[in-house]
Design brief:
Shape: elongated
Strand content: 15-25%
Oligomer: single chain
CATH topology of one domain: Rossmann fold
Distance between the termini: 10 Å
Structural class: alpha/beta
Radius of gyration: 20 Å
Helix content: 25-40%
CATH architecture of one domain: 3-Layer(aba) Sandwich
Number of strands: 11
Largest sheet: 6 strands, mixed
């Protein structure tokens, strides 16, 4: 069966040259966007209940744009003046670049990894005496604790925001040829909203091994898998599949 309609379980890209828009034009497919999960900030009161005092840390580990937004939100709620000598360890260049929303980039100590969290290890080894705070969500990447503990770092995880499943009831009667997921929570959201979901001819595209596992645990057939050496992005993986399916 041909793929003519795709639902991406993320917000619509704000940039005009998004690869999704280019994919839509190139393959003549309709692509809609709808977040299956959303983020809710944890109030400063709850951060204190986690026994976190921002004054106690010399370095911040940032793994997403959300972690940046909610660290600075909590800092403001706590009336904590972020010191200029605070060190920022960012998982990727895109995350480091996003820091400019809150700090003057050239005046701060910012250390950047390549892509994966483990890529930061060489930087952490140079600053083993720091006290690290990792503001994140209630769903911590399972690779992170063993990486940081293995380096014997003094680090504290903080739940600064939660990932919450969105209400998708308005999609009950809408059918798509392909659904794209980027996190295990996205799969869980599908089944929370539609417990009787039956895949049938619907193609399932997943990004990452943990998302793939969640899909398989729910007895879904995974038709498109990314990243791979041949297709490192979701759009590339979808295009490869569509070229075969839409012949």
């Amino acid at each position: 069966m041909k793929v003519k309609t795709i639902l991406v379980s993320q917000p619509e890209p704000k940039v005009e040259n998004s690869p999704y828009f280019e994919l839509s034009q190139r393959m003549k497919v309709k692509i809609d966007f709808r977040p299956f999960v959303h983020v809710e900030g944890v109030p400063a009161k709850e951060i204190r209940q986690q026994k976190i005092d921002l004054n106690n840390f010399t370095s911040i580990i940032l793994t997403s744009k959300n972690s940046i937004d909610h660290f600075f939100r909590v800092a403001e709620e706590m009336r904590y003046k972020v010191p200029e000598d605070l060190k920022y360890f960012c998982q990727s260049e895109a995350i480091a670049f996003y820091l400019q929303k809150y700090v003057v980039y050239r005046k701060r100590k910012i250390y950047v990894g390549q892509k994966d969290f483990k890529d930061l290890s060489t930087l952490f080894k140079k600053y083993k005496d720091e006290k690290f705070l990792m503001p994140g969500s209630d769903q911590l990447n399972p690779d992170i604790p063993p990486t940081l503990d293995g380096l014997k770092l003094d680090w504290t995880p903080g739940i600064f925001y939660r990932t919450v499943m969105s209400d998708l009831s308005d999609l009950a009667d809408v059918k798509y040829d392909m659904l794209c997921f980027f996190s295990p929570t996205g799969i869980k959201s599908l089944f929370k909203n539609f417990p009787d979901f039956v895949q049938n001819e619907t193609r399932i595209a997943v990004f990452g091994s943990t998302t793939q596992k969640e899909a398989l645990d729910h007895k879904l057939r995974v038709d498109v898998m990314a990243p791979s050496p041949e297709t490192p992005s979701m759009t590339m993986a979808i295009e490869k599949y569509c070229k075969e399916a839409n012949k």
